[in-house]
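Saturday, quiet lab. Running sequence design on the C-alpha cells for the scaffold JK sent over.
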C-alpha cells in the first residue's frame, strides 16, 4: 500500500529590505503555480518568507521592528496566496514573523502555518528553540537577534492529520535539536516541514564555518532516519542584506536518503513523490518505539 503525497520544496533566494510584501507574494505565487503544474499536493516555503531575515541586524524603534511582522494571516497581500492556492487546489506551508496579542500583551513569534488545499489554516507552530542573542553583539559580521525580537513559541511541538498523513512543523534552529524530531515522532509524525535562514558562517564559532552545509544535512538526515519521518527543509538562500546563507533545500526520506535537493542559491522548486508508508516500514521494524525504546534507562530526557 502506498500513500503518496507530492511535495514541492520552494527554496527562496534573498529578499531585500526594499522588497514589498506584494513583490514577495508574486515570487511565492510563481513557485506555487510551478508546484501545481508539476503535480504538487503541498508546497513548502521557507522561514520568515515574507521579508528579509531581520534578526540579522539591530533595530530599536518598535514601529520599525513591527513593520516586519504580520498582525493578521492572511493579510491584504498574503490573501492573494491563499486565493490562488484554493483555486489551484494546492496546500502550502509558510513561515512568517507573527505579531499576536495575548492576554492584552503584544507577542512576537517566529511562526509557521500549514494550509490545506481549501486554503484553511490547519496547523500553526511558533519557534521554540531561538538561537543567537537578546542583545547587539559588537564585532560580529552580522547579528543573530532572534532572542531579542521573538518570544519563545508557546504552542508546543504539534502534529496534524493532513494530506493523507500526520504532518509536523518546526523551524530552522529547531532542526539541530534531536528533541524536536522525537517530540513530533512520539505524536506519530510521518512528515516534518521546516524552513531555515542559515548563514554559511557563525561569528560565535568560526571554526565550524566550513561545516555549515554538512551540519545542515546531518541534522535533517539523522532526524528523518532516527524518527521514521520525511523531512522537508527549505532555505532562504544566497546573499541577503550582506549575509551569505546556505541553500541545500531538500526532501529527505525516512531512510535518511536525500531524494531531491536544490542546486542553486535562488528561487528554485524541487519536487518529490513521498510515500508516507515508507515511514511506517521503519516504525514497525528498526525503530519500533514500543518494542525497542528503553525509556526507563534514559534518565531525565524523556517523558
Ligand atoms: N538560523 C541558524 C540555524 O539554526 C544557527 C542559527 C546557525 C545556529 C549556525 C547554529 C549554527 O540554522 C536560524 N534562523 O535559526
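Result came back. Writing it out in full:
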Amino acid at each position: 500500500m502506498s500513500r503518496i503525497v507530492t511535495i514541492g520544496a520552494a527554496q527562496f533566494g534573498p529578499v531585500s529590505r526594499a522588497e514589498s510584501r506584494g513583490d514577495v507574494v508574486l515570487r511565492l505565487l510563481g513557485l506555487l503555480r510551478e508546484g501545481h503544474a508539476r503535480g504538487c499536493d503541498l508546497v513548502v516555503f521557507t522561514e520568515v518568507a515574507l521579508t528579509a531575515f531581520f534578526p540579522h541586524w539591530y533595530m530599536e524603534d518598535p514601529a520599525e521592528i513591527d513593520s516586519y511582522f504580520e498582525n493578521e494571516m492572511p493579510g491584504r497581500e498574503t490573501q492573494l496566496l491563499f486565493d490562488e492556492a484554493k483555486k489551484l487546489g494546492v496546500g502550502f506551508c509558510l513561515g512568517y514573523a507573527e505579531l499576536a496579542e495575548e492576554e492584552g500583551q503584544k507577542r512576537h513569534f517566529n511562526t509557521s502555518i500549514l494550509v490545506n488545499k481549501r486554503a484553511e489554516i490547519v496547523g500553526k507552530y511558533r519557534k521554540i528553540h531561538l538561537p543567537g542573542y537578546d542583545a547587539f553583539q559588537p564585532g560580529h559580521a552580522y547579528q543573530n537577534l532572534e532572542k531579542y525580537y521573538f518570544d519563545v513559541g508557546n504552542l508546543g511541538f504539534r502534529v496534524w492529520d493532513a494530506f493523507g498523513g500526520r504532518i509536523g512543523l518546526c523551524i530552522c534552529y529547531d532542526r539541530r535539536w534531536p528533541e524536536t524530531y522525537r517530540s513530533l515522532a512520539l505524536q506519530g509524525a510521518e512528515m516534518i516541514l521546516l524552513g531555515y535562514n542559515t548563514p554559511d558562517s557563525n561569528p560565535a564559532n568560526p571554526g565550524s564555518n566550513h561545516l555549515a552545509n554538512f551540519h545542515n544535512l546531518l541534522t535533517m538526515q539523522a532526524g528523518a532516519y532516527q524518527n521514521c519521518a520525511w523531512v522537508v527543509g527549505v532555505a532562504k538562500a544566497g546573499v541577503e542584506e550582506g549575509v551569505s546563507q546556505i541553500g541545500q533545500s531538500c526532501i529527505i526520506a525516512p531512510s535518511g536518503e536525500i531524494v531531491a535537493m536544490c542546486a542553486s542559491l535562488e528561487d528554485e522548486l524541487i519536487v518529490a513523490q513521498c510515500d508516507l508508508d515508507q515511514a511506517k516500514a521503519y516504525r514497525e521494524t528498526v525503530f519500533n518505539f514500543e518494542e525497542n525504546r528503553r525509556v526507563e534507562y534514559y534518565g531525565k530526557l524523556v517523558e
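Notes for JK: The chain has one domain: 4-292. The CA atoms of residues 213 and 219 lie 10 Å apart. Ask whether to fix the surface positions before the next round.
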